[in-house]
Write a structure and sequence with these properties.
359 residues, alpha+beta, Rossmann fold, six-stranded antiparallel beta sheet, globular, 2 domains
């Protein structure tokens, strides 16, 4: 009888130990939390001109000051024209610029997974094929062909079109012939959903690193979009993508579209053109081509800033009569904040099958 009670006692203790071990394993499995941390480099495309509209070249990182919400930022990388941005070396914390170092890319400081940014720009051309463009369709298409041919060898080009629908006629490519064929075979459509198409174009451009720009060739009106121009403008600012707007209407003929085009282009660091004649359209494309060839690329990692909303960016030129210079870049951005997430990491406590080693 005593042996029977002793056996039951040992069985009870064994069950308690097994239950405790199972609970411990379950808690260990559910308590594993992965914290996601991102560090985003802010890249600015900066145009500097004098009072006569001529591009100012030959400036270095020591000639620029960048402020975000009034906080002075340390320039981490610098590039001029179509060159690849390079890291900036300083004499010490808060010290003077010593020299430019190796090529840099998007990523966190000290990251080992660094891939050099490409030289040149990724140019996304968005063409209005709606019935608003009916009369000037052929001439507009010819102007785009000439623009694509004039781009730098290091540039990459994508050609999209839109009416009511959005069409990726030619994805981003280093082969101009492929893009030119897409331009020549583009046909006219119906209604105009400009801001829908512009939103999709920006999302495509954001998949690439380095300098990205969007060139819009439009008649102006939008009668079919589901998104607002303000949403598009803020997205372009946050992604750091300048938008160049070419309207085939004279500014005074469509004051509403004119105001929207100017606001989008100015706030993103691009330019707006109102070209009612084909000669003016060709001049607009030539101006954009010149702009791409004279931009400075300035990158920095934002200093600690509690503001998770809209951040204002100011760029100044110092040391060379800054009052005589006009600076054009995006006016601000909204940082991308990832919500705090909790992930469960499964823990396998079972022994591996015979003949297999756990790795």
């Amino acid at each position: 009888m005593g042996q029977r009670y002793l056996l039951l006692a040992w069985l009870s203790i064994g069950l308690l130990i097994a239950s405790a071990a199972a609970a411990s394993a379950q808690n260990a499995q559910s308590d594993v939390t992965i914290v996601h941390i991102t560090v985003n480099m802010v890249q600015l495309d900066v145009a500097v001109t004098d009072n006569k509209g001529r591009y100012v070249t030959g400036l270095g990182p020591e000639n620029f000051e960048v402020f975000e919400d009034g906080i002075r930022e340390k320039i981490a990388a610098f590039g001029e024209e179509n060159g690849v941005p390079r890291s900036v070396h300083y004499s010490g914390p808060g010290g003077k610029v010593l020299q430019l170092g190796k090529y840099v890319v998007d990523g966190a400081p000290g990251s080992n997974s660094i891939i050099p940014s490409s030289a040149g720009a990724s140019v996304f051309v968005l063409f209005d094929t709606s019935n608003y463009m009916y009369r000037g369709f052929a001439l507009a298409r010819d102007a785009i062909v000439q623009f694509v041919r004039s781009l730098d060898r290091s540039d990459r080009v994508a050609f999209y079109s839109y009416s009511r629908d959005f069409f990726r006629a030619s994805p981003l490519s280093e082969k101009p012939a492929q893009v030119l064929e897409a331009v020549r075979t583009t046909v006219a459509g119906d209604d105009a959903a400009l801001y829908n198409a512009l939103l999709w174009t920006l999302k495509d451009a954001d998949k690439f690193s380095g300098r990205r720009v969007v060139v819009v060739f439009s008649n102006g009106p939008d009668d079919a979009s589901m998104v607002s121009p303000e949403d598009v403008r803020e997205l372009a600012q946050s992604e750091g993508i300048p938008i160049y707007m070419i309207s085939t209407r004279q500014a005074e003929r469509d004051p509403l579209s004119t105001a929207v085009f100017k606001r989008i282009s100015t706030s993103t660091g691009g330019k707006a053109y109102f070209a009612g004649h084909w000669q003016d359209q060709e001049k607009a494309f030539a101006s954009i081509r010149a702009d791409l060839a004279h931009l400075y690329t300035i990158s920095y990692y934002p200093a600690t800033n509690p503001n998770t909303g809209w951040r204002k960016i100011t760029v100044e030129v110092k040391g060379k009569k800054p009052k005589n210079y006009n600076i054009r870049t995006r006016t601000g951005y909204r940082p991308r904040v990832l919500p705090e997430t909790t992930e469960t990491m499964p823990i396998n406590t079972a022994p591996p099958p015979k003949g297999m080693d756990r790795k």
